[in-house]
Amino acid sequence: MNNPRPCYLQIAIDTPLNAVFDYRWQCEAGQRPQIGQLALVSFARREVVGLIVGVADHTDVPVDKLKDALAVRSQLSPLSAKWLALAGFAADYYQRPLGEVALPGLPKNLRVLTTVALDRAIKKLAKLEVPHDPTPANPPSLNASQQEAADAIGGAQGFKPSLLYGVTGSGKTEVYLQACAQVLAREPDGQILILVPEINLTPQLEGNIRARFPGVMLATLHSSLSEGERMLHWLAAHEGKARIVLGTRLAILSSLPHLKLIVIDEEHDPSYKQQEGLRYSARDLAVWRAWQLQIPIVLGSATPSLESWHHAQSGRYRKLELRERAVKNAVLPTVKLIDMERDKPSDGLTSQLVAAIKQRMERGEQSLLFLNRRGYAPVICCESCGWISECTRCTSFMVLHRPEHRLRCHHCSLEMRIPRHCPTCGNVDLQPLGRGTQRVEEGLQAMFPEARVLRIDADSTRKKGSAQEAFDTVHRGEVDILIGTQMVAKGHDFKKLTLVGILNPDTALFSQDYRASERLFAQLMQVAGRAGRAGIPSEVLIQTRYPQHPLYGAVVHHDYDHFASALLEEREQAALPPYLFQALLRAEARELATAIEFLNMARDCVEHPGITINDPIPMTMTRVHNVDRAQLLVESPSRPALQAFLKEWMHALREMKSRVKWSLEVDPLDI
Ligand SMILES: [Zn+2]
Ligand SMILES: [Zn+2]
């Protein structure tokens, strides 16, 4: 009998401090823990689950400072070296300790103290089976360019990034599915990761995948799963049992030991960027992961991000084009601009738009009105003294939600009853100013009393499952006029929809954010793309005060190519991304001066040759929930120089131990 021998485990823990700590472990014979396993340890007087990143026979930590690890989760097979390298890359690139990246990337049930949930999931997974003798749905036949794209993706070997650039309705999904079929047929254990931006798009795609690959286990990973479901699906991917994983951005950090293809649908979508905590871009990590594994990756969009377009133009990505709509006879909708100076709107709708809706009603077709602003009105005001409903905690307004009789701040969630009279002068006649989806809905009901009007936005779909229910109602044809925010702009394929009206898109034209026009163009093309997908001629009407604006000209001509090339040229001349690399340091404090003072100190705390550090400025929305926010933009034309600087800078800032709350974002989207 061998006596237990101690070994030393280096364990990454989810903490902003130095993330890896040594623990002692008594190894039974042949039971040495492995790198990539999880272990229960005590840390800072708590018990936590950490990740084993090293196993050694010696440690430099003095014996009296060493603690024993409490348990090793040996029932879970270790995370692979490739996965650890992915977490390590993300930690390095986004300047965070390894534990803060690797552990939050795992399901919560793996990080709790007991193994009950894990054991239950392991048992459940063992029993899960896919149907024995399944009959897959017949794949539709592809047109020539779809076939070419599917073959190029499905047949690719090694690291081959492709940009699948296809107009809305050109059948990109079908290309993905047939490329997947090729990979699944070729690679007996191979796994495929499909990323989608929004969870409300997943049910449609999920159904398609199940119908086409009934003999293959599909796991889904997104934030609306219960913790139990997430654990089970994560485990199915980790054990290699699930061969297709469909998920939102968080799925990029899932463990996929036999990954052979990555698909990113709507790759331009901002929701691939996490906006808090570890501010990673799932798209960028996916490209790195494909490179690491030397496997093909496809990024699909009708309006690619300028970053990806730039890579396609320079030959780094292979460009695959779908210029036509896939459904026979389906053509792109006619886009028209309505000059709001000439056709003055009443209740937010111009007479031309009203006439077009009426026509659809008569023909039994559906209309979609798009307004990216929820609530009834963005603000209420007193006409006699000029008071407006500002939020007391934010640099922002309280939005009127009339059906709920509330004023709500969309930034800090402050809520109150609608005041009966002006808090300043007592005037009882308070007026809503501007218009949100609720007000447009009300106007439509008054104008078309016989119409079935449905509003879809974050307010109308608070309950779990209610968004899907609402979309199903539209698909069943039980809605005449649909009004919604960006929630309705993406992915959905409404067969009877032949009119899209776009209300009030002008504000983004004059934004300080240089990405605003790229985003507006993508959004308009997306929502316009909902129309006429089933082959019925259709139109898109855009109400604007600036019909001469070149952005609208490009939308009218469905001309992404020229628009993107012109934008890229502008960016190059102005030295902006993708020709320049950026990072943003943000600071928060009760007083703006404190945040600015911290950023000034940060600016001067290390040498920075080759790096431009701008002056600290307050963020556009300075105050949120009684906290003032400021930012410092760092730029360099060299990615390696920027990364090297950030590493040293973060080290210095952590040493500073300031009480100001700060965070760093690499490749920020909102500046
Ligand atoms: Zn007043
Ligand atoms: Zn607020």
Automatic annotation (TrEMBL):
Keywords associated with the record: ATP-binding, DNA replication, DNA-binding, Helicase, Hydrolase, Isomerase, Metal-binding, Nucleotide-binding, Primosome, Zinc
Domain of life: Bacteria
Sequence positions that bind Zn(2+) 2: 391, 394, 409, 412
Entry's EC annotation: 5.6.2.4
Signal peptide: none
Annotated ranges, domain Helicase ATP-binding: 153-322
Protein task: Initiates the restart of stalled replication forks, which reloads the replicative helicase on sites other than the origin of replication. Recognizes and binds to abandoned replication forks and remodels them to uncover a helicase loading site. Promotes assembly of the primosome at these replication forks.
HAMAP family: PriA
Official protein name in the record: Replication restart protein PriA
Organism: Duganella rivi
Organism ancestry: Bacteria, Pseudomonadati, Pseudomonadota, Betaproteobacteria, Burkholderiales
Gene name tied to this protein: priA
